[in-house]
Amino acid sequence: MDQISFHHNSVLSDVHLLLPNAQHLMTRLNQVGQPVFISKFKILSDGERHDSNDPEKCKRKDGDEGVVGNMEPVVDEDGDLDIRRRLQKNPMVDIGRDLVCPIILKQSNPELEQEEENTNDEVNTYFKDIIRIEHTMATPLEDVGKQIWRGAFLLADFILSKPFMFKGATVLELGAGTGLTSIIMATIAKTVYCTDVGEDLLSMCKRNVILNSHLMEPSGEISL
């Protein structure tokens, strides 16, 4: 289930490519039969942001980890960089039988979607700094809006760093995709109009808005 299949016309966002498989959880099939995954992202507090940008703390952290950070790059006999892959944290133990991956058989329908939305909304109420986004993985070019892209994170980071600029504002987002940026904006702005093209994409975006409704301002709202 964690294996990603590529076709000649498939496109995969670097956000999904660089996340470990453990961060992706396949939940269902969408209306056109594409696997839908859910990923969790943490909204850093001001203190956590400053710590991550403090070069002195980064140096101390590297020092605590030993001499690994000061090692010379390893090259092969031709002088090319020799990439050493990191060992698995939990290597698979040979248990004498084939690995079996579960298959998600259900396809989404309105009743199941409503049930999942209600359940997830109750669970997420207790995580004020966690945003959960449903998305697809590798898609054809015309469906890339169903993935999460780095530009959405850059814009979200800008919004969170300039809260007074958007406080109480009315905002229109064109081409919202999964709705990540609109959801972040709704934590500050009064009203957000979230727009895109495609019934299936808008349905996914609506689910993401409901999943993260606990993050929004009490007086804020998102209209699709």
From TrEMBL:
Sequence intervals crossing the membrane: none
Gene Ontology annotations for the cellular component aspect, listed alphabetically: nucleus
Keywords of the record: Methyltransferase, S-adenosyl-L-methionine, Transferase
GO molecular function, one term: protein methyltransferase activity
InterPro entries: Methyltransf_16, METTL22, SAM-dependent_MTases_sf
GO biological process: methylation
Domain of life: Eukaryota
Entry protein name: Methyltransferase-like protein 22
Taxonomic source organism: Scomber scombrus (Atlantic mackerel)
